[in-house]
Amino acid sequence: MEQQKRTWAEIDLDSIEYNYRTLRNLLPQGCRFLGVVKADAYGHGAVPVAKCLEAAGADYLAVACLDEAEELRRGGAALPILILGQTPAEYVPELLKYNVTQSLGCEADAAAYSRAAASCGGTLKVHVKLDTGMSRLGFLCEDGAFGGSLEAILRSCALPNLAAEGIFTHFAVSDEPGEDCRDYTLVQYGRFMKMIGALEARGTSFAIRHCANSGAVLNYTKETALDMVRPGILLYGYGDGGRLGLRPCMRLMTRVCAVKEYPAGTAVSYGRTFTAQRPTRMGVLPAGYADGLFRALSNKCAFAAGGGFAPQRGRICMDLCMADLTDLPDVGVGSKVEIFGGKSSLDKLALAAGTIPYELLCAVSKRVPRVYCRGGVPISVSDASR
Hints:
about 30% helix; alpha/beta; ten-stranded mixed beta sheet
């Protein structure tokens, strides 16, 4: 395909569907499935992934902000959409226009949303956000703040032109090992359920209670599934440590654009951080940090090429990097190289960069075309450069 002339990302929709069904099978009967597609579906393309999840049977979608919700609606996504972040009240007309559910984390926002919705003659659907220990958005649920938050939530849910469909929280360490992390997760869950119980005792209940992120779906499904779960990174094939057999859904690919023969002693790239110790056959790859290949990975990784791996050499540049092809004589100009995906481990790449797979997936830039595949065959392309 023309989009494969430089660097591209192959998105396997079959694997997204496979991961969805694998995760769905973990859930109790009647539990809803919310697919997290914020940050352009973790770099995979929000609209194609949303449509894939919708066709597979998902119940809800989640994004971080209004712009992401609008993109989904313009792209034809029909599922309910929850905005996880805060939206200024001046944008309530857009929330109503696009039929988007807004998270609600404080009484001041509730009052502003109520006034704005009333001025539009509409009713805004909201999910109340509880801060049970993440220390970000939401009504505080720790003992010292519990009573005040309870009253604030009751007042907020009683406001006109607001429909409180759901209530949720987010776990801080549900994906981390160790008893301390397990204890903290269960403390968060206990605070969540305590607040729900107190609200119900005062006559306020919610159709959808949800708290299980990817870590909780993997480690605490029985305790935390409730009415809906919110897998994110698991959908894209990471975070299960191989326990569920999930499939990575993105392959970041490039092609060798030049091959150079260097004698021993030749310095490579900016800063001369690599010097060839032997006669070296060096490949130039049209992929750099502007494409999402972190400069911090310089001299720390290898890419799958031919039947082996080509060590990356020298500093990664904005648009190019170099890889040692000396031991891969069959790899030449035009040969495909996998930066990460099925053969080159994204987990290992993230470890080498001192980060997590989330960041590397989200870092794949907009100038990298996404080539969507079914059955291993490209079916469509999303190319922001056009």
